[in-house]
């Protein structure tokens, strides 16, 4: 006779509930410990709960480019602004489009808000322009002096020393300023243009600080007639960069035209005559402020793409042959000069360093501007709205009250209808709440997740989803008891049927949350993320806590005996008496002849 085959464990197998409970207990302890170790014991709050600033930027049409405001350019601008703000450590900032030509930037309170606002408002394009002349931006005595400008060098070159407030010496009088501008504009045009890539690296180029007045030295500048030269000369002489209206009036020049520009060097304003743009900001591949390990000073490193490397090598080679200040190039962002380093030789290879007078903050700010400054559109601030922490606190309080009311109603329903089983549901909800809270707190530290009001709504909706899973399982157990089974086999036989229903239901909820997260932007994504997270945790809690707890409780006398307050009383459930067969399977009744009887 063949040996009997070993079959699968029967449906009513008890399993190992202790192992599952140990797993979820370890997970809870680990998450809680991680929360305290990371010193992030509360979830980070979004702008609508913690307060902050909301900035609305409006895209502006540029002359000759009526179709520039389109979906592609708007999305590109969103990405650049987001990287620029996040580069300051504002990981909770939200940047999104609204309508056809608006971008909304939400900056939470306390996350470098002031600094982020300054850089968000700096939304125009970035250019590298050769310097033609420089002077003090404010009316000053002829004897006033300023400290040297920073210098640019090739990667690996000796660093030039500069002052903490890099600047150049103004000309001694308006007459000498005008003479410098006039002679520069009358010189032949030699605007730098992209050239073929150089085959070798630059030699060590030690740049020298530029600290002399703009001399009346002929130089390669854009061509123009005498009237244009005189007009620009007059505007340069009359320009007062301490006047905000005058600073705004000189902005908006085309990249291929010479222009006037203002900028701050330390605490003093300066003014420049600049040639046409030699390199565009979009040709900067990366830039960052770092500390020079050898000199112990902060510098800014730049890396250009192929086009930018060729153009930068050409312009630095041409500028190096000139005298100060015409051996400098200005980094112009939003029409303002943010830096004007000098060079003493061509910088090849696409790698450059700007050194001289930087501290950590100024070096990182300049690196951030160079990395993320080249936007395809220009913007203006349409509105700025500040949400106070008090208003955010009121919204959070209202959300928590709504959640508490919802939870209380669920608990009342469970106690009235399920009695003793309500204890299982309540403890399971507590486990789910602990897991949700600790994970949200850790995600705030790890990926910058910020809890906003829609996310709180998602957590409230999740209470019903989790409670629904318990109800499905409890009803399946009751169905088995109604069929006449005792509690222990009923718990095990009900589980496979309830498990399928719970998984299908949670899969649909998670799928809806995933689709909502993908197709929406901004705060709605917070709702979708929280809903998806709590749906996954519902599966974890039901499988690793609720089911094992029911297996253990089925062994207790209170539940196994069907106590009236257990919620599993067979009489209240209308249970059928156990089915017992009086005959053996396969036996047939014996016929009886009435006559023989």
Fraction of helical residues:
40-55%
Number of strands: 16
Cα radius of gyration in angstroms: 37 Å
Low-pLDDT segments, ≥5 res: 4-13, 140-147, 156-174, 187-224, 579-586
What is the overall number of helices?
Answer: 16
Q: Biggest β-sheet: count, sense, barrel? A: 6 strands, antiparallel
User: Quick check: average pLDDT?
Assistant: 74
What proportion of the residues form beta strands (DSSP E)? 15-25%
Distance between the termini: 45 Å
Question: In one word, what is the shape?
Answer: elongated
Main structural class: alpha+beta
Summarize the structure in words:
With 597 residues, this protein is of the alpha+beta class. The protein contains 16 helices and 16 strands. It has helices at 17-37, 47-50, 71-86, 113-121, 174-186, 226-238, 244-249, 306-319, 360-372, 389-418, 421-446, 453-482, 487-519, 523-553, 557-560, 570-573; strands at 44-45, 52-60, 94-98, 102-108, 126-136, 151-154, 259-265, 268-274, 279-280, 284-291, 298-304, 329-333, 336-339, 351-358, 378-387, 450-451. Strands 5, 7, 8, 9, 12 and 13 form a six-stranded antiparallel sheet that branches.
Could you name the key traits of this structure?
16 helices, 4-stranded antiparallel β-sheet, 6-stranded antiparallel β-sheet, 597 residues, alpha+beta, 16 strands, elongated
């Amino acid at each position: 006779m063949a040996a009997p085959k070993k079959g699968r464990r029967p449906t009513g197998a008890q399993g190992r509930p202790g192992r599952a409970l140990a797993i979820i207990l370890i997970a809870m302890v680990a998450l809680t410990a991680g929360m305290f170790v990371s010193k992030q014991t509360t979830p980070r709050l979004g702008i609508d709960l913690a307060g902050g600033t909301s900035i609305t930027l409006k895209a502006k049409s540029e002359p000759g480019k009526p179709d520039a405001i389109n979906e592609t350019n708007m999305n590109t601008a969103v990405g650049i602004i987001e990287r620029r703000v996040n580069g300051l450590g504002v990981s909770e900032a939200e940047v999104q489009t609204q309508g056809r030509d608006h971008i909304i930037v939400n900056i939470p309170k306390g996350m470098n808000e002031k600094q982020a606002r300054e850089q968000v408002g700096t939304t125009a394009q970035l250019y590298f322009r050769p310097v033609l002349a420089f002077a003090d931006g404010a009316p000053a005595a002829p004897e006033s002096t300023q400290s040297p400008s920073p210098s640019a060098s090739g990667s690996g070159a000796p660093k030039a020393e500069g002052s903490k407030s890099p600047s150049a010496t103004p000309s001694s009088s308006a007459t000498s300023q005008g003479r410098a501008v006039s002679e520069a504009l009358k010189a032949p045009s030699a605007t730098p243009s992209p050239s073929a890539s150089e085959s070798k690296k630059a030699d060590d180029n030690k740049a020298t600080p530029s600290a002399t007045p703009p001399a009346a030295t002929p130089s390669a500048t854009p061509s123009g007639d005498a009237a244009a030269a005189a007009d620009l000369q007059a505007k340069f002489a009359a320009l007062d960069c301490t006047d905000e209206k005058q600073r705004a009036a000189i902005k908006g020049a085309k990249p291929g035209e010479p222009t006037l520009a203002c900028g701050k060097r330390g605490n003093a304003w300066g003014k420049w005559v600049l040639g046409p743009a030699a390199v565009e900001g979009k040709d900067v591949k990366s830039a960052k402020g770092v500390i020079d390990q050898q000199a112990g000073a902060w510098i800014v490193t730049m890396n250009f793409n192929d086009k930018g490397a060729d153009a930068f090598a050409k312009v630095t080679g041409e500028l190096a042959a000139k005298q100060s200040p015409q051996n400098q190039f200005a980094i112009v962002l939003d029409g303002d000069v943010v830096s004007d380093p000098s060079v003493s030789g061509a910088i090849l290879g696409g790698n450059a360093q700007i050194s001289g007078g930087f501290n950590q903050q100024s070096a990182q700010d300049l690196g951030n501007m160079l990395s993320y400054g080249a936007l395809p559109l220009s913007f203006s601030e349409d509105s700025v709205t500040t949400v106070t922490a008090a208003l955010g606190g009121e919204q959070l309080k209202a959300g928590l009250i709504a959640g508490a009311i919802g939870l209380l109603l669920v608990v009342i329903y469970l106690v009235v209808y399920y009695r003793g089983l309500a204890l299982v549901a309540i403890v399971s909800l507590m486990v789910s709440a602990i897991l949700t809270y600790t994970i949200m707190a850790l995600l705030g530290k790890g990926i910058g997740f910020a809890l906003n009001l829609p996310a709180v709504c998602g957590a409230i909706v999740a209470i019903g989803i989790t409670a629904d899973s318990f109800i499905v399982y409890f009803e399946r157990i009751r169905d088995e008891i109604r069929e006449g089974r005792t509690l222990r086999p009923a718990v095990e036989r009900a589980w496979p049927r309830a498990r399928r229903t719970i998984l299908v239901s949670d899969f649909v909820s998670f799928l809806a949350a995933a689709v909502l997260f993908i197709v929406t932007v901004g705060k709605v994504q917070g709702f979708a993320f929280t809903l998806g997270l709590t749906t996954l945790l519902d599966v974890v809690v039901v499988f690793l806590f609720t089911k094992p707890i029911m297996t253990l409780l089925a062994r207790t006398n209170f539940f196994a005996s069907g106590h009236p307050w257990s919620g599993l009383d067979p009489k209240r459930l209308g249970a059928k008496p156990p089915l017992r067969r009086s005959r053996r399977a396969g036996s047939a009744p014996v016929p009886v002849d009435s006559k023989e009887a």
